[in-house]
Amino acid sequence: MKARAWLQLARLGNAPTALSALAGAWALYGDGGEPLRVAGVGLALVAAYIGGMFLNDVFDVRFDQQHNPDRPLPLGVVSRLDVILAAGMCGVICLGMAGSTARTEALVLVGAIVLYSWCHKSSPWLAAVLLGTCRGMAVLLAAAMLGDGASGISTPPVLTLTIAHAAAGAAITLAASQEHRERPGPGGLVPLVRLIPIGVFIALDVPGATLMDWIEAPGMLAVLGWVIWEIACERKRRSPQPGQAIGGWIAGFSVVDLVIASWVLHVPAMALASICFVLSRLLQRFVPPT
Questions:
Q1: What is the full per-residue pLDDT of the chain (290 aa) written as tens digits?
Q2: In the chain, which end has fewer C-beta atoms inside a 10 angstrom radius, N or C?
Q3: What structural domains does the chain harbor?
Q4: How far apart are CA 31 and CA 250, in angstroms?
């Protein structure tokens, strides 16, 4: 029971989507993809995510005592001090793996996570901005670690991917804040905010001048799959159980990274993004995504 409680606190069903930010950055920095470095980036991202989830429950304990009494902290299955210590250890791991190469990005990410956990209940709009910052900084951290520092995060493709993650994170947060309603919003806004940056990315790397060039581009199949997935999520939002759309949208982060990896034809990153998507959906069956 205690092990399941820790899995609930970590919201493990969403953790693969934090790892998939590595896939997008890896696709854009294939030259920085030595196995040990890639593994270090993945560890830093997952540690930051899990630490944030721990802090989320720590700061929400009074709210959960009234509204979610079945969460591990209100039930007393895990002590609050143990969760705080675990969150701190996750932060140390993230900062340690980032090292001097990406220390600034890691500090900003950890700081944004702490701020989000502390005040996300005060305003859904503030929560959206802070969560968007967390998601965007995860991309920048991965890019900085793979691209040898600040110079690795200033390219248009990296900034475009950062905006895609940040904007989608903000929109999903707004939707999640309303999931108790009959039809949580903002609905179509979630795929839209992802579509705009992805459109910019495609414009930066046009496959060719003819229609056949576009059809034969490897990334077009991934784009089509992403559009189909977003339509399926919107249908869930309009179903009798609209809250299911939230988990689908969160898993969709991995699909965005798959689009980027497919567009530049980086096979290892494509495989990682695909695995993250499938793993997220499987884990969400056992651990609630929100």
A1: 688 888 888 888 888 988 889 999 898 876 656 788 889 999 999 999 999 999 999 998 888 888 888 888 888 888 899 999 999 999 999 999 998 889 999 999 999 999 999 988 888 889 899 999 999 999 999 998 987 666 657 688 888 889 989 988 898 888 777 655 555 556 667 777 777 888 888 887 787 778 787 877 878 888 888 888 888 888 887 777 766 788 888 888 899 899 999 988 899 999 999 999 999 998 888 776 66
A2: N
A3: 2-284 (1.10.600)
A4: 29
Residue 250 CA: distances (Å) to CA of 55, 82, 88, 284: 19, 27, 25, 10
Q: What type of residue sits at position 43?
A: L
Q: How many residues does the chain have?
A: 290
CA distance 225 to 258: 10
The burial class, CB within 10 Å (0-12 / 13-18 / 19+), for 3 is exposed
Q: Which two tokens stand for residue 174?
A: 């707004």
